[in-house]
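PROTEIN DESIGN WORKSHEET
SECTION A - STRUCTURE
LENGTH: 430
TOKENS:
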């Protein structure tokens, strides 16, 4: 079915994508910063820019108000039309980017969790005039809980404090001290002015005391490939492909997205939960065959043997497979107004497998502002996060979230309405 083989260089280019989530309090300049990144990377159309210039002039500004590129969504939120995450796309010659523009207010914690759950990098904005706020700390805690491996603190509006080095150093020291309580492997603190463009794309002459990278340089060069688990092979099967045409009547492949490890033809693998073993005969990527597959590639795997494989199964290495488990210990962000209580029954969706789950116990509720654990909490309310024990009707093929963010996460669904009511991060599975 595939007669063209992709080179390793072609495969590597598929990973040249950075997903990052932005977070900030109201008026910290998030919309202006995103507008600046879109404008300076030439990712907006001429008519969009003309419309923004006209509106800026009508408002009496002597500058182009780049926040107008994204403020349409903000006004929608204020009117109650939508509070969802907005995704923006742009690219430079070095890398492609997907921005998850997440709401900053505490009542939209669930939206921030959604937007940051797949992010490689988290970008937190603070106003240089106000320094760290409770919301700034909460954003950092959430990004840490979600195991976002890289964090950038942008000290914005430096132009309004006369580019004072002491202001930057104070905020830098305060946040670095706070970050020691969290799991943040990589932290960069950058002084910027989104309005003026200082240290966003071009280095600013107003901050000669700052020797670090500009924001764009850091986004283009931060190394994310090694953040993914390339050791433990995890391939949740999403779909079984069996073409019925005469040309491909013997074709049988298993489609899905690689969640971990590197797969190559000739590798011995095991299919779970059946335990049947086989060898990879080939790996297909849309219209061609590839020599290897790794996260987050979506591919079709062909096996040498005609083994029974179906949606929800997982292909792994024989000597490095996840242990099926029905007892799950996880951190859960609750996303609906009806509280989560012990003995509650829900549907659970983990990778491509769906089962039912019983809430055995709520161990504690976490205050994301103070990191205080409340062991007496008998339930979790909207936007609250807590540690919960679950029992599932079918074994899940999972890993700790700290090890693999794909096989270590799940969502909870109300069976009666089909609405997603919770998002979980697995601590361990027994």
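SECTION B - SEQUENCE
RESIDUE ASSIGNMENT:
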């Amino acid at each position: 079915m595939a007669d063209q083989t992709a080179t390793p260089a072609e495969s590597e280019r598929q990973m040249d994508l950075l997903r990052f989530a932005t977070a900030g309090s109201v008026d910290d300049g998030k919309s202006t910063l995103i507008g600046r990144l879109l404008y300076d990377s030439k990712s907006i159309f001429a008519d969009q820019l003309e419309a923004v210039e006209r509106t800026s002039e009508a408002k009496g500004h002597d500058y182009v108000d780049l926040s107008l590129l994204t403020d349409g969504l903000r006004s929608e939120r204020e009117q109650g039309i939508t509070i969802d995450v907005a995704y923006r796309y742009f690219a430079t010659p070095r890398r492609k980017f997907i921005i998850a523009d997440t709401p900053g207010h505490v009542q939209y914690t669930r939206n921030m969790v959604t937007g940051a759950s797949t992010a490689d990098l988290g970008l937190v904005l603070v106003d240089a005039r106000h320094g760290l706020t409770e919301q700034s700390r909460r954003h950092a805690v959430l990004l840490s809980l979600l195991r976002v491996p890289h964090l950038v603190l942008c000290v914005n509006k430096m132009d309004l404090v006369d580019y004072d080095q002491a202001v930057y150093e104070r905020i830098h020291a305060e946040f670095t001290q706070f970050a020691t309580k969290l799991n943040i492997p990589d932290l960069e603190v950058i002084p910027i002015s989104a309005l003026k463009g200082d240290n966003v794309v071009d280095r600013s002459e107003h901050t000669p005391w700052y020797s670090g990278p500009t924001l764009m340089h850091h986004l283009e060069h931060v190394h994310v490939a090694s953040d993914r688990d390339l050791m433990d092979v995890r391939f949740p099967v999403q779909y079984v492909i069996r073409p019925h045409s005469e040309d491909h009547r013997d074709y049988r492949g298993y489609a899905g997205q690689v969640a971990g490890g590197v797969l190559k033809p000739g590798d011995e693998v095991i299919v779970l939960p059946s335990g049947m073993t086989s060898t990879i005969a080939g790996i297909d990527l849309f219209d061609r065959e590839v020599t290897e597959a790794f996260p987050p590639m979506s591919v079709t795997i062909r096996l040498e043997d005609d083994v029974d494989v179906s949606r929800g199964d997982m292909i792994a290495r024989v000597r490095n497979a996840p242990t099926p488990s029905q007892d799950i210990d996880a951190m859960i962000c609750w996303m609906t107004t009806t509280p989560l209580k012990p003995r509650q029954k829900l549907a659970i969706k983990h990778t491509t497998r769906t089962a039912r789950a019983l809430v055995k116990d709520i161990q504690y509720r976490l205050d994301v502002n103070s990191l205080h654990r409340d062991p007496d909490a008998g339930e979790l309310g909207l936007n609250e996060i807590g540690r919960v024990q679950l029992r599932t009707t079918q074994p899940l093929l999972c890993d700790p979230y700290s090890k693999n963010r794909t096989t270590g996460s799940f969502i909870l669904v109300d069976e009666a309405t089909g609405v997603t009511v919770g998002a979980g991060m697995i601590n361990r599975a027994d």
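SECTION C - NOTES
Residues 11-226 form a domain with the Rossmann fold fold (CATH 3.40.50.300).
The first strand starts at residue 5 and ends at 6.
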